[in-house]
């Protein structure tokens, strides 16, 4: 619970920037994901909160069967996950208007982290 409250406090200012960024994502940017970023524990923790808030409903272990594919992180490049989250794809919604750049990048780090648990 405490982590949730902390994460919410972190998410508020970031979300305020989402509108500006949404305008910039109409053409796919090439996003750099350094090893340092992907392995930063704070980034991974933020990504885990984003995952719990929005992704679990469709991709979680308890999600209604067939709602969304079980993710297979070992097959993904960071840019692929980032693009899905940012732009959506068929049944996968875009989160560009809901999450700022840092949160979308953080959820990539979470999905690709060794601790990832759907
Ligand atoms: C409303 C349900 C829904 C939500 C919420 C959702 N997804 Fe998805 N997602 C889908 C569906 C459906 C697909 C399959 C799209 C296709 O390929 O046709 C998908 C595909 C993906 C893929 C590509 C999987 C592959 O192997 O091709 C990734 C990565 C992904 N989602 C990540 C996320 C992340 C991260 C979040 C949270 C920010 C999220 N999704 C939230 C429904 C959802």
Name the structural class.
mainly alpha
Q: Percent range for helical residues?
A: 55-70%
The CATH topology corresponds to Cytochrome Bc1 Complex, Chain D, domain 2
Question: How many whole angstroms does the radius of gyration measure?
Answer: 14 Å
- Shape summary: globular
Give me the strand/helix succession. HHHHHH
Helix run count: 6
Strand content: under 5%
How far apart lie the N and C ends?
19 Å
> Can you tell me the CATH architecture?
Orthogonal Bundle
Distinct small-molecule ligands in the complex: heme C
Tally the beta strands.
0
In CATH's first tier, which class applies?
Mainly Alpha
Q: Which parts are unreliable, with pLDDT below 50 for 5 consecutive residues or more?
A: 6-10
Overall mean pLDDT score? 85
Written overview of the protein:
Mean pLDDT is 85; it is low at 6-10. The protein has 118 residues and is mainly α. The protein is globular. The chain has a single domain, classed as Cytochrome Bc1 Complex, Chain D, domain 2 (Orthogonal Bundle), CATH 1.10.760. It has helices at 2-16, 18-24, 35-39, 41-59, 78-87, 101-112. Helix content is 58%, strand content 0%. The chain has six helices and no strands. The structure holds heme C (HEC). The site of heme C (HEC) has 21 residues, from helix 4, helix 5 and helix 6. Heme C binds next to helix 4, helix 5 and helix 6.
